[in-house]
Design brief:
Layout (H helix, E strand, L loop, with lengths): L1 E4 L7 E6 L4 H14 L15 H12 L4 E4 L4 H12 L5 E5 L10 H9 L3 E4 L8 E4 L7 E5 L4 H10 L13 E6 L5 H13 L5 E3 L4 E4 L15 H16 L4 E6 L13 H4 L2 H4 L4 E4 L7 H10 L4 E4 L11 H10 L6 E7 L2 E8 L14 E2 L5 H6 L3 H5 L1 E4 L12 H7 L3 E4 L13
Parallel strand pairs: 2-11, 3-4, 7-8, 12-13, 16-17
Antiparallel strand pairs: 1-17, 1-18, 4-6, 5-6, 8-10, 9-10, 13-15, 14-15
Helix pairs in contact: 1-2, 1-3, 1-6, 3-5, 4-5, 5-6, 7-10
Length: 434
Amino acid sequence: MIRLTFDRNRTNLQGTVHLPASKSIAARALVLHHLASKEPAEDNIPNLPECDDTRVIKRALTDASANGTINIEGAGTAMRFLTALFACQPGSDIILTGNNRMQQRPIGTLVEALRTLGADISYEGKEGFPPLRIRGKQLSGDSLTMDGSISSQYISAMLMIAPLVKPATEGNPPFRLTLEGKIVSVPYIDMTCALMEHYGIEVAWEEETGSLLVPRGSYVDKPLTIEGDWSAASYWYAMQTLAMKLCIPYSVKLEGLTYTDCIQGDSICVELLDPQLLMRGEISIDCSDTPDLIPTLAVAYFLLDTPFRIYGAENLRIKETDRIDALACELGKLGCVLKVESRNWNDKAEEILIWDGTKNEAYDNGKCARISTYGDHRMAMSFAPAVLRFGHIEIEHPEVVNKSYPAFWDDLKSVGIGIDILPDTEDNPSDNEP
């Protein structure tokens, strides 16, 4: 556990922070590089982020040649992408598993889609959940229809292997992936398409049918420099906006970000945390395209005393933890009375996070709150800006940030946040459910 401290009467926030490369881009690049070349990824992707998710995928791609069991720990992206990748690799025979939380996260939609193309995948435990037994083979088919409202990672996984799927008819037609329902996290699908184009496969959106057309063929390996991670930047933008409200001198420079032609949807955090936007009163936004920003925004808006309605939160239920319940519990420790409403939207259940300004004053009293992280990196980092408002805050299991941003605490310290290491609780962070 760590205790963050800050005396806003004595300390300025200043310094330079070099943000890690995007783990979302890195995950896709590693898979596409593997399909294009058997050379080490570092040869053509020099700035791979040194985070757990990248490490897990690199290790899995290396270990796959020997078959056997591959444990991807808590990396949901790795589970989805590698399930599709190994399914289309003839000769592979792999059991793909993860930690306790991973075995509670559904994957049935992706497995059924792959089976439609002939994949040999079976469940080693509970139906619809990891671990999976995957026996790779040549997949074949010309089209597939998927529900676009569940997870964009299912769609990205299918897109990346689509060029390798053998046509079922003559004429070598493009593979048609049709998406039904409300499509969530569209910027992540766009990111996948942009990276596929970088590696030589250009995907076309057919707007009138909601289909993605993927030409058959082989990927071509090319050098790639990964953009700085805008999800990581969001915590700093939250801190900057809060510092302005609290009249704290703030001069932190962020390095590594791409501002033009950026392929990360989370770059919209600049707009969503713009002080001019927050001056309008209650915020009402749809985050179905950028769900990873929701913890950052919910905590920041509360700290800024800005009532909010955040739509499109339903997929937070199947993240590293149930982020909706976790946010309600941990924001409650700061005095926030967070409400969750459900509604049917286009025949799908949608969940909305609402804070109407109501506080439980018994908690908003300057006492040092202790934030549980539930094995979730975004829970840990989203609550860090609270130190500016309260002067101190404790965060359990700080090591969870290694999943995406291992240097986060060091970077906070370098700009003026006090950090003390304390003994952790005995709970396993990934099993600590709200």
